[in-house]
Every structure is written in C-alpha cells, then in structure tokens.
Amino acid sequence: MKLLKQRHQIIAVSRSNGDQRADMTNKTSLNAALRAIGKVDAIVSAAGSAVFKSLAELTDADFEKSLNDKLV
Fold this sequence. Notes:
This protein has 72 residues and is mostly helical. It folds into two domains: 1-41, no CATH class; 45-72, no CATH class. The protein has three helices and two strands; from the N terminus they run H-E-E-H-H. The protein has a two-stranded parallel sheet with strand order 1-2. The chain is elongated and about 45 Å long. It starts with a helix and ends with a helix.
C-alpha cells in the first residue's frame, strides 16, 4: 500500500477501522460506503474469509461460503 500511496489517493474501507466503514457481506452497507466515497477509478479488495480444511474435508457449504466472501 505504501507504493500505491506515492502515486494514488487511497481510501481504506473496513468493517472496524479505516477511512470509511462497510460490511462487505451487506449490500446496503457497501452501497452507503460507495455513495459516501463518490467516484473511484479502481477498487482493490483483499477482504473476506475462507474455510481452511484439507480438500477432502471441505463441504459444498464451505466452498459456497469461501466463494461468497472472497469472490462474490
């Protein structure tokens, strides 16, 4: 992030700290944060959780949770 800040304005968004608060699992919360921030050129996300188990132990529900939290 230090390198990005040299050439770009960074707006940190988090559930608990940062420049703006948002819960990425809640569409209303995300929309409110984006309205408050305004127009952006790009969004970089490193948020979300995933289920960590051996591949043989992962269930369909585990895959769904991980995909929803990281991708959707």
